[in-house]
Amino acid sequence: MPYELYYWDGLQGRGEFVRLALEEAGAEYMDVARQSDGTAAMMKLLKSKSAPYIPFAPPFLKDGDLIVSHVANILFYLGPKLDLAPEDEPLRFIANGLQLTITDFVAEVHDTHHPLSTNLYFEDQKEAAKQRSADFIEHRIPKFMGYFERVLEQNPDGKKHAVGNRLSYVDLSLFQIIEGLHYAFPRATKRFGERYPALTALHDAVENRANIKKYLASDRRLDFNESGVFRHYPELDQDA
Amino acid sequence: MPYELYYWDGLQGRGEFVRLALEEAGAEYMDVARQSDGTAAMMKLLKSKSAPYIPFAPPFLKDGDLIVSHVANILFYLGPKLDLAPEDEPLRFIANGLQLTITDFVAEVHDTHHPLSTNLYFEDQKEAAKQRSADFIEHRIPKFMGYFERVLEQNPDGKKHAVGNRLSYVDLSLFQIIEGLHYAFPRATKRFGERYPALTALHDAVENRANIKKYLASDRRLDFNESGVFRHYPELDQDA
Q1: Is residue A188 within 8 Å of A137, Cβ to Cβ?
Q2: Is A119's pLDDT higher than 90?
Q3: What are the structural domains of chain A?
Q4: Element (H, E) at A4
Q5: What is the ipTM of this complex?
Q6: Is the Cα dihedral B89, B91, B94, B99 positive or negative?
Q7: Is the CB of residue A51 less than 8 Å away from at least one CB of chain B?
Q8: What is the C-alpha separation between A68 and B97, in angstroms, rounded?
Q9: Range A121-137 burial, b when 16+ CB lie within 10 A, else e
Q10: Could you give the dihedral angle defined by the CA atoms of residues A228, A229, A230 and A231, in that order, rounded to the nearest 10 degrees?
Q11: What are B97-120's pLDDT values in tens digits?
Q12: Touching check for B218 and chain A: CB below 8 Å?
């Protein structure tokens, strides 16, 4: 039975981290909300007053009867099945720790455009968003990207991968956040390649993998847009 | 060899979710930063330019050579060892999903007092903090707590526990966020017991477990304070 991925239609968002893993592995999956009535089916499940262990929010993955929620949890679950996790058991907890740092970074990216409330429009919190974005560009991008660059540099198996000596879902997720940063903050990331050479090499290597390349060129890969996590609002971007 | 927990001294913070599990299980552990030179040892590790797989931030747990970072990851790792995880393998991913929803909630609690930047003092973002807190009280507390109440109500093994039919680390973490909410927002949580009866019963049951009771009365349990995640700033609280 194919995996069923439940996530909002019309944007990459957090679901994209799961899609990249499924696509790299060539796994069979159904992107439920992109089927007709798919979003209704998703909402029905989320609002169920009787189903056990309902998720809090998308994305979640259905594998038979089991529903796994949260990106890092889905990838922890799928990683070994898709051959995208370290074989070594302890290293799987290292991979999960890195993925959770990516999760935190993604939440901070979201908060650059929604610092006060997800219930207010961007226009209604623009001043706070400018302040938060300036701080994000000055402090948080260097802190997180400097950290991931060190992780690559200090990987005992070489700096081509985040964990161990082969591709894992963490590498795919790093590709995605670098891609997103360039979309959302083109000015702030102008010197990204020179500042973070190992991350840039990883990004380029992932982009050129056969299955990823095919996926990125397909219509299953939506463009970044202003409904997703990474949004390009020129007034929030600045040189760095 | 005892587990080594690395976390800031002087506050409960995110480390407290791990402490509660270790204490409930009666596990041997060392709270490293509370030893002399402990914080220096922690910083040395975080700043290492050569160690493999360094964590991004505390808390992290050292078990022999392995360093596990992020609360949910630490608990996923420790759960089975401390007999605080479901025995059923698929249910462990359910527990992890719930714990990650708790993680998201804790990040939102933090952002009530620091909506613009962790690098600015509370005083310098108080107006934004008031807006974010009002939204948090009106929308986010009911959304998250309503969700967890449903999880208990819809647990096929009964509403005493979040997952399965026995205590897990998720129950302990739910206790901690309820405790923290009451500390930070006494006005907003005045009717908590009536609105969320199953959660309140769970909180009280955890509080009365022998090991937890002993721990809460010990000097290892620090009081909530305004350095932690849950902070009581009266100007951010309001009736709900």
Answers
A1: yes
A2: no
A3: 3-81 (3.40.30.10), 89-209+232-236 (1.20.1050.10)
A4: strand A3-6
A5: 0.97
A6: negative
A7: yes
A8: 7
A9: eeeebeebbbbbbbbbb
A10: 60
A11: 999 999 999 999 999 999 988 888
A12: no
Q: List the one residue out of B60, B154, B144 whose CA is nearest residue B101.
A: B144
* Amino acid at position B199, single letter: L
Q: Is the pLDDT of residue A200 over 90?
A: yes
Which DSSP string corresponds to chain B? --EEEE--SS--TTHHHHHHHHHHHT--EEEGGGSTTHHHHHHHHHH-SS-TT--SSS-EEEETTEEEESHHHHHHHHHHHTT-S-SSHHHHHHHHHHHHHHHHHHHHHHHHH-SS-TTS-GGGGHHHHHHHHHHIIIIIHHHHHHHHHHHHHT-TT-TTSSSTTS--HHHHHHHHHHHHHHHH-TTTTTTHHHH-HHHHHHHHHHHTSHHHHHHHHSTTSPPP-TTSSS---GGG----
A133-178: per-residue pLDDT in tens?
Answer: 999 999 999 999 999 999 999 999 999 999 999 999 999 999 999 9
CB B104 within 8 A of CB A107: yes
Question: DSSP secondary-structure letter at A32?
Answer: G
Q: Is B235 left (phi over 0), alpha (psi -120 to 50) or beta?
A: alpha
Say whether A113 sits in a helix, a strand or coil: helix
Structural tokens at position B10: 């002087």
Q: Do B96 and A76 touch (CB under 8 A)?
A: yes
Q: Is the peptide bond before A59 cis (omega within 30 degrees of 0)?
A: yes
Residues 85-124 of chain B whose Cβ lies under 8 A from any Cβ of chain A: 90, 93-94, 96-97, 100-101, 103-104, 107, 111, 115-117, 119-120
What's the distance, CA B100 to chain centroid?
11
CB-nearest partner of A97 from B70, B93, B100:
B70
What is the average pLDDT score of chain B? 97
- Closest residue in A to B159 (Cα) is A52
Question: What's the rounded Cα separation, in Å, for the pair B196 and B56?
Answer: 35
For residue A75, give how far its alpha carbon lies from the nearest alpha carbon of chain B (Å): 11
Residue type, B164: G
A156: nearest CB among B52, B131, B151: B52
The nearest alpha carbon in chain B to A106 belongs to B104
Facing B93 at nearest CB: one of A77, A111, A120 = A77
Give SS3 for A220: coil
> Which positions 67-86 of A are in contact with B (Cβ < 8 Å)?
67-70, 72-73, 76-77
- Full DSSP string of A56-67: SSS-EEEETTEE
